[in-house]
Design brief:
The chain is of the alpha/beta class. It folds into 2 domains: about 140 residues, Rossmann fold, CATH 3.40.50; about 130 residues, Nitrogenase molybdenum iron protein domain (Rossmann fold). It contains 15 helices and 13 strands. Helix 7 packs parallel to helix 15.
């Protein structure tokens, strides 16, 4: 009788071990792009932001990211739990891994696909200014944190954003901490060389031209952060710059002209390139143009991916190249 009981116990033990091993073999570690994490890595934190306070579990397993600058920064830090991103338009080439079908399409930078996002049951949604007006709608789906886009005080705001991200994604905290130090050092070197240089920021959009002041996204970087002096400190505040004309631009006397092609950044079909639009007698007579000091910057990076660690590195590199800083 004892022998029969012993055999039964052994058989049951083998069966249970076999089941356990089978579960380990058939359950993928990253099923549906969801990261397996131990409960010890998660605790609840309260994130204060411009739209209130949000309770979030640290190291969330399913994250929807609705901004390309944020996506850039999270990818740079190696955050593994991103499940959906805005893919209604083309992604920058260095972020093209997110074109893979394992990353769901969460809509556009300005028009989220709320139905799809709801289906994904995310643990966290991250948004910036382009979708701020939809904060309440996002919050009905999942905990939502508003991250301020770096603009007027670019590096200071960026640092605050990184502090929030390191509080949420504690597994990558060391990647966020100190990640701006190199950029801050480079900004100081640029400011040393740019402090006596007058600049004009021009944006083209289809057949229209505008100019940007110190309170724009472009101006926040070029004027406020990197130290160039605007040729006109009365340029009005506007997200896309102050509507302008070739005659106004030609009347300015900048040492440097920085040009952004919004149509190229958002892939507007049939729009003339900024170079073609500005290739006219008025602009070509300007000293900055004659001296080769007109610079057509990477508009996709500056317009669509503002506030990313990789994008900011590339933005600064373009200005360093313009100033011939080695």
């Amino acid at each position: 009788m004892k022998k029969l009981v012993l055999q039964a116990v052994l058989a049951c033990t083998v069966f249970l071990v076999g089941c356990s091993n089978n579960n380990k073999e058939t359950t993928p570690a990253n099923s549906n792009n969801v990261i397996e994490q131990s409960e010890e890595t998660q605790k609840t934190v309260v994130i204060k932001h411009n739209y209130g306070e949000t309770e979030v579990k640290t190291n969330p397993k399913k994250v929807v990211v609705m901004d390309l600058g944020l996506l850039d920064t999270l990818d740079n830090a190696g955050v593994p739990s991103i499940i959906a991103v805005p893919k209604s338009g083309p992604l920058p080439s260095y972020l093209n891994k997110f074109e893979d079908s394992k990353y769901e399409n969460a809509g556009g930078l300005k028009d989220a696909d709320f139905e799809k996002i709801s289906e994904l049951t995310p643990d966290l949604i991250l948004i910036t200014g382009r979708l701020a007006s939809s904060y309440d709608e996002f919050s009905k789906i999942a905990p939502t944190v508003y991250i301020e886009m770096p603009r007027l005080t670019y590096l200071d705001t960026f640092q605050k954003d990184l502090d929030i991200l390191s509080t949420i994604f504690t597994d990558q905290k060391d990647k966020f901490e100190g990640s701006l130090e190199n950029l801050k050092s480079r900004a100081e070197k640029i400011k040393e060389k740019s402090k006596d240089i007058k600049a004009l920021i021009v944006q083209t959009n289809e057949n229209n031209v505008s100019v940007s002041g110190t309170d724009s996204g472009y101006g926040g970087v070029i004027y406020n952060t990197l130290g160039f002096t605007p040729t006109d400190d009365k340029i009005q505040s506007n997200a896309h710059g102050q509507q302008s004309s070739f005659e106004y631009i030609g009347s300015q006397k900048p040492d440097y002209i920085f040009v952004f092609d919004r149509s190229a950044a958002i892939n507007t079909e049939g729009a003339p390139s900024a170079k073609d639009l500005l290739n006219n007698d008025i602009i070509n007579k300007m000293d900055a143009v004659k001296n080769g000091k007109i610079f057509y910057l990477d508009s996709e990076i500056w317009y669509k991916v503002l506030g990313g660690l990789t994008s900011t590195d590339r933005m600064f590199k373009e200005i360093e190249d313009a100033l011939e800083i080695k």
